[in-house]
Amino acid sequence: TQDGEYWLPAATFTYEIIDNMQVRLAYSQTIARPDMRELSTAPFIDDERGLTVRGNPELRIAEIENYDARFEWYFAAGESLTVGAFYKKFTNPIEQAVFTLGDGRLGTYVNGTSAELKGVEIEVEKILPFQDWFGWDWLGTREMYIKANGSYIDGETITDPEDLGSV
Q1: How are the residues of the chain apportioned to helix, strand and coil, as percentages rounded to the nearest 5?
Q2: 87 strand-pairing partners
Q3: How many Å from the N-terminal Cα to the C-terminal Cα in the chain?
């Protein structure tokens, strides 16, 4: 059901190791409500998967606990390196499911029992001094920079087989 009141606490702790380096720890609780398409019994065509999909009005709101740890290094003005790790624990995650009906298939959405998501992330932002490297005076005082981000994420969802049988 979509009714509910939630207390969603969040807290962040930041410790500055030295002037330009810090460690950040965070915890929060959030929710994810099913969208209208996931709830509607009106069928629609999913062109990507090549099947008819019908929503599930019995979906429950997913509850999520979030844990984050980050190391941040600001090695120059406008330049930084961040390395983080995260863990998320889901109750009632919303998952896609596909059922065989006669000769066809029908897609829908179900609530899983639980899910976990964990990963690491790295981000770097660096000013590129093209004026100094190549003598490009036409840039004037404008800065060019590169910002890159990469993540490794691992997730697992547990769904009871009896939940998969309720279209």
Answers
A1: 10, 60, 30
A2: 67, 118
A3: 16
How sure is the predictor about 159, in pLDDT bands with cuts at 50, 70 and 90?
Answer: confident
Distance CA 26, CA 3 (A): 28
Strands 51-53 and 104-111: parallel
**Phi and psi torsions of 139, nearest 5°:** -75, -20
- Interatomic CA distance for residues 60 and 106, integer angstroms: 20
Do 39 and 33 contact (CB within 8 A), yes or no? no
Compute the distance between CA of residue 21 and CA of residue 71 in angstroms, rounded to an integer.
7
SS3 state of residue 8? coil
Q: Over 90: is that where the pLDDT of 66 sits? A: yes
Six-digit token pair at 35?
């969208």
**Alpha-carbon distance values, 120 to 23, 66, 115, 163 (Å):** 15, 14, 17, 31
